[in-house]
TrEMBL record:
Residues 433-498 form the HTH luxR-type domain. The lineage of its organism: Bacteria, Bacillati, Actinomycetota, Coriobacteriia, Eggerthellales. Coiled coil: none annotated. This is LuxR family transcriptional regulator. Keywords: DNA-binding, Membrane, Transcription, Transcription regulation, Transmembrane, Transmembrane helix. SUPFAM superfamilies: C-terminal effector domain of the bipartite response regulators. The chain crosses the membrane at residues 7-28, 40-63, 70-93, 99-122, 134-151, 157-175, 204-225, 237-254, 266-284, 290-311, 323-347, 353-375. It holds the Pfam family GerE. It comes from the Bacteria. InterPro entries: Sig_transdc_resp-reg_C-effctor, Tscrpt_reg_LuxR_C, WH-like_DNA-bd_sf. GO terms for molecular function: DNA binding. One of its GO terms (biological process) is regulation of DNA-templated transcription.
Length: 503
């Protein structure tokens, strides 16, 4: 069932979609939605939005103190002023272009701040709770968005800054009261654990580029939508419908089984379909844009969910500040979205060689997507390296324990998961069975096995490139899940599982 967190985030997503998704405003008069107005707004909004992510990453690293607080007013005030600027543009049309730029910049900064606050909240919760709230919000956001059309347009535009924004700002303030600030992700000072943060950037930048490729594609589609506001309104509707489908698909699948997803592998599978869709663009014309955008945004929405889940997982497992991780990841993704939008505008107005606008857009899109694909896979360094490292998997693990049995072989244990963990000896096999039975994450299973082998906290922290506080937090969670209190109880529990199950 939805709660304050999921409904608040859903309302934020719905309201944000009325302006941020492409500079097309379904609740503002079409008379002011000229090409120059929408282009100016979205350039200002998107660039400030992406830069704010990178700025948050640097800010958390060098000034970790303020990051311990939910500074909602720092995001809410510019967001409110941005919407006031958009409303003012309707009545002061002589200054509409300047107000569009100011409104775009303010909304971009404010929305980035709210996204950071929500990500911080979801990451601070237990994985099952945070992931559930995030996915439920993704399901309810489109429903709220479509419900906004039931309100008279002239009223809706005033309700957003005066009613809706205060509501989702209040919801995050209320929800944040239960946040445990004693977790390693908040306690650990970034500059005191530099190696942990650097290693995280090395491990996750490829995933960011893969998701950024979908963002780039959506930026291109948005550039076409902005040029034609009538088409843009249809794209907005299909985008939100795609979000609903993506959210329902995630929720339904997660309820049935554990999910282990590899972003890089998924991108390699989908890449040929994406570039093939762009190749069809000049042949099928503008009637093809809306369904193409709907399918593309379905993939993009799934990717955004995975981005937030993966960043939260990295923060929990490695003791990294969630704003740092999400700011780095999101900065890459949304900067590539901006690059796609700018490229689409440039290619659409390019008339040399007698190319039609859609032909130019398709040509440049396929070329730049191929470059992003190459860079995202590691570039020349990765292509020539003998060690083909891959991004870590994303885990969505149900809260209920699996009905495994001890001292008896079980076919279901071996069937779960996408890849078998490394089996070294009897203890490794037994730890795999414990992980399956109690639904431990990969990192929890690593820590559990090292504890079972007698490794100290300091040694485990060194081996996993995390802080000692992070190891202690994992140990507490492991002991709670296994319902034990001492190392000897862990050893006895591990020994109670029959390793022949995996043979």
């Amino acid at each position: 069932m939805p709660n304050t967190r999921s409904l608040g985030y859903a309302l934020f997503l719905a309201v944000n979609a009325t302006a941020v998704w492409g500079g097309v405003f379904p609740f503002l008069p079409m008379s002011i939605q000229t090409s120059s107005f929408t282009v100016a707004f979205f350039l200002a909004q998107s660039l400030v939005f992406a830069v704010s992510y990178f700025a948050s990453t640097l800010g958390v690293y060098f000034f970790p103190g303020p990051a311990r607080k939910f500074l909602v007013w720092a995001a809410g005030l510019p967001y409110l002023l941005g919407w006031c600027a958009l409303i003012a543009a309707v009545y002061v049309q002589d200054a509409a272009l300047k107000l569009a730029i100011a409104g775009g910049a303010l909304i971009g900064f404010g929305s980035a701040g709210f996204y950071m606050a929500w990500q911080r909240l979801f990451a601070s919760q237990k994985p099952a709770v945070g992931n559930r709230d995030l996915i439920l919000a993704t399901v309810f956001a489109p429903l709220i968005y479509f419900a906004l059309y039931l309100i008279p347009v002239a009223v809706t535009v005033f309700l957003i800054p005066t009613v809706f924004m205060p509501l989702f700002a209040l919801s995050i303030l209320v929800a944040s009261r239960t946040t445990d600030l004693d977790q390693p992700m908040f306690e650990n000072l970034p500059r005191e654990h530099k190696n942990t943060y650097v290693q995280a950037l090395k491990d996750y930048w490829r995933s960011a580029f893969c998701i950024g490729a979908f963002a780039f594609s959506c930026g291109v589609v948005r550039s076409i939508a902005v040029e034609t506001p009538e088409v843009g309104a249809e794209v907005n509707m299909l985008s939100m419908a795609s979000m609903l489908v993506a959210g329902v698909a995630f929720a339904a699948t997660w309820q049935k089984k554990s999910l282990q997803l590899n972003v890089s592998s998924a991108f390699r599978v989908l890449f040929p379909f994406v570039i093939s869709a762009f190749v069809l663009l000049p042949f099928l014309g503008k009637d093809y844009i809306a369904p193409f955008a709907g399918a593309l945004y379905a993939l993009y929405d799934c990717a955004i969910i995975l981005m937030m889940v993966q960043c939260a997982q990295a923060s929990r497992e490695r003791g990294i500040n969630p704003v740092f991780m999400y700011g780095f990841f999101g900065g890459i993704v949304y900067m590539l979205h901006d690059a796609g939008y700018i490229m689409g505008l440039f290619a659409g107005n390019l008339t040399m060689f007698g190319l039609q606008p859609l032909t130019s857009i398709a040509l440049f899109s396929v070329y730049l997507l191929a470059l992003v694909y190459f860079v995202g896979q590691g570039g020349f360094k990765q292509a020539l390296s003998p060690n083909r490292a891959r991004a870590e998997r994303i885990e969505l693990i149900p809260t209920a324990a699996a009905p495994a049995k001890r001292k008896r072989p079980s076919a279901s244990v071996q069937a779960e998961g996408q890849r078998k963990p490394a089996v070294v000896d009897r203890i490794s096999k037994q730890c795999i069975l414990v992980k399956k039975h109690y639904k431990l994450s990969e990192r929890e299973a690593e820590v559990m096995e090292l504890i079972a082998r007698g490794a100290t906290v300091a040694r485990i922290a060194e081996m996993l490139t995390v802080s000692e506080n992070t190891v202690r937090t994992h140990s507490k969670r492991i002991y709670a899940k296994l319902d034990i209190h001492r190392k000897q109880e862990l050893a006895d529990l591990v020994d109670s599982f029959d390793p022949r199950t995996l043979e």
